[in-house]
Amino acid sequence: MFARDAERSQASLDDAASPAAQVLDIGCGAGQEMLPFVKAGAWGVGTDIAPDVGALGYELYSRVGLGKRVCFVRSTAEHLPFASGRFAAVISRLALPYTDNAQAIAEMARVMSPHGVLLLKIHHAGFYLNKAWYGIRSGKLLNTVHAARVLTSGVLYHLTGTQVRNRIVTNETFQTEWLLKRELARHSLVIRRHMPDTNWMTPSYVIARSDAIPGGDC
Ligand SMILES: C[S@@+](CC[C@H](N)C(=O)[O-])C[C@H]1O[C@@H](n2cnc3c(N)ncnc32)[C@H](O)[C@@H]1O
Questions:
Q1: Top mutation candidate among 1, 9, 49, 74 for ligand 1, by most atoms within 8 Å of CB
Q2: Is the CB of 95 under 6 A from ligand 1?
Q3: pLDDT, tens digit, for every residue of 114-167?
Q4: CA distances (Å), 73 to each of 44, 76, 77, in order?
Q5: 3-state SS class at 135
Q6: Whose CA is nearest to atom 10 of ligand 1?
Q7: What is the structure's pLDDT at 87?
Q8: Is the CB of 163 under 6 A from ligand 1?
Q9: Do the beta carbons of residue 105 and residue 38 sit within 8 Å?
Q10: Mutate which of 28, 33, 131 to test ligand 1's pocket (most atoms within 8 Å of Cβ)?
Q11: Tell me: the pLDDT tens digits for 14-69?
């Protein structure tokens, strides 16, 4: 769907402010979010923890004649196998909830170039509240149980600053803008603005270094 959504593709490019030579998508799925950048001339790298990372991605890019401009690497968001400052655009959409957030954000900050942007989409608490309510309404109570566990985990993370994983809670967590600002500040990153597809359940942000001059990268 994103590959055909010209308006949102253009918005992603506009958010990067300047053409990115290399773009990284963390927790990439099919890697479709890199497509506008790769079409504009960037080299794309997609990473995902999934064993079949790249299976769909190579197919998608080959179909539009760009298979040689991307590569897909299996890795966790918490330990990226790339040199520091490598990517002018780093994308991560809806993967952060499943990671060790502090470690994943540290890695995103590390691989971003000095004037790079991070295009980040998160799961707000509202996403899981909606899921819990859906479970009750539809009688699919496993949804409610899962959402309750993530909400518990997220509240603990917000209060203590540490993500816990045990038999009751889970490492999956929601984020809020307040939490994000706390984690980003550790790496001198700030939220510049929302992306056009932002919404209350899954907000999206354009993030940059606090000392970066917008449009200063190439
Ligand atoms: C909801 S999907 C989003 C996929 C893609 N970003 C998109 O927008 O279509 C979450 C992705 O994060 C990946 N993921 C989960 N935990 C991860 C981790 N620790 N490191 C890297 N990727 C992870 C999953 O395999 C999955 O592909």
A1: 49
A2: yes
A3: 999 999 999 999 999 999 999 999 999 999 999 999 999 999 999 999 998 777
A4: 11, 10, 11
A5: helix
A6: 95
A7: 97
A8: no
A9: no
A10: 28
A11: 777 566 799 999 999 999 999 999 999 999 999 999 999 999 999 999 999 999 99
Give the per-residue pLDDT at 218. Answer: 40
pLDDT of amino acid 187: 98
| Gap from CA of 48 to ligand 1 centroid (Å) | 6
Q: For residues 156 and 174, is the Cβ–Cβ distance under 8 A?
A: no
Residue in 12, 2, 29 with CA at minimum distance from that of residue 89: 12
| Distance (Å, whole) CA 218 – CA 216 | 7
The domain segmentation of the chain, as residue ranges, is 2-123+176-209, 125-174
User: 189: how many CB neighbours lie within 10 A of its CB?
Assistant: 22
Tokens of residue 110, six digits: 């590390």
Q: How far is the CA of 213 from the centre of ligand 1 (A)?
A: 30
Spatial separation of the C-alpha atoms in residues 210 and 215, rounded to whole Å: 13
49 CB within 6 A, ligand 1: yes
Span from the CA of 29 to the centroid of ligand 1 (angstroms): 6
* SS3 (DSSP) at 115: strand
Helix 101-111 vs helix 177-185: crossing angle, to nearest 10: 60
Statement: residue 216 has pLDDT above 70 = no
What is the CATH class of 2-123+176-209? Answer: alpha beta
Pocket flag, ligand 1, residue 50 (CB < 6 Å): yes
